[in-house]
Amino acid sequence: CNQLSGGQLFPEQGGGGMSILRKYSIGKNVILLFAAAIMLSPFYISFVYSMKTREQITFTGLKFPSEFHLENFSQAVEASNFYVVLKNSVITTVPTVLLLIIICPMAAYVLARNTGKAYNIIYSLFLTALLIPYQSVMLPQYMNLKQAGLLNTYMGAVMVRAAFNISFNILLFTSFVKTVPIELEGAAMIDGAGMMKTFFRIVFPLLKSVLCTAVIINALFSWNDFTITLNILMKEGMKTIPLMLYRFFGEYNVELNLAFAAFTRSRIPILRLYLRLQRYIVEWVMSGAVKG
Hints:
By secondary structure, this protein is mostly helical. The chain contains 15 helices and no strands. Helix 4 crosses helix 14 (256-266) and helix 5 (82-113) packs parallel to helix 8.
């Protein structure tokens, strides 16, 4: 025991063991640094390209700029009508996220607390919907929106975006609600609370971390959506940021510097939202690890 506690289990291999551990630690750090470089490379590319002229991009590529051309940002704002498309992106993103984080937790609560055959079938249908590509329903969706008068309206864009994200959110919230102890709800119901009151007073506050995760995922999807928006918001004054960025890539002319300048500005709201909610996402991941 003394030899074990003193670390003398294999005394003749002690130095070699430390050497192996040191090499393992160095190798792990190298891999982590390489992975971090890959993850951060888009930020570097966008910064470098947004600070150069078109000629410098052509001849110097990804080389760090020797001088910063900050006028690219003002030119990108003027060329893209940036603040109008920013407003359109906010108008279509915020309601989409609110709809999903209000409706989906309630539906997930019902599906998680009921194990009947009908509820299992409904849950399976939601999961199956994850496999349906948007392109397969694009034409009927367009015809339905046209008949309903929802083409080129913010409401139409919000409804379609929310509809295509419901399945994922049901899966996300149902999995989390199942980890909430049902005994907490039983105590509330004994005190006379109904189903809705039990959900909003007991269960909903416990979903804070997964709600923040859902906010980030849904906001990112809606903010960066291109295909759905392209088929619904076709008027020039209703285009969102992804559609605005597309105008810098013409048939005979590509304004990479202005495109990356506009892209750099457009990602600031989502980046700030992520940084504000990051700690809740970490809490959710860690709580899942502990429960697992």
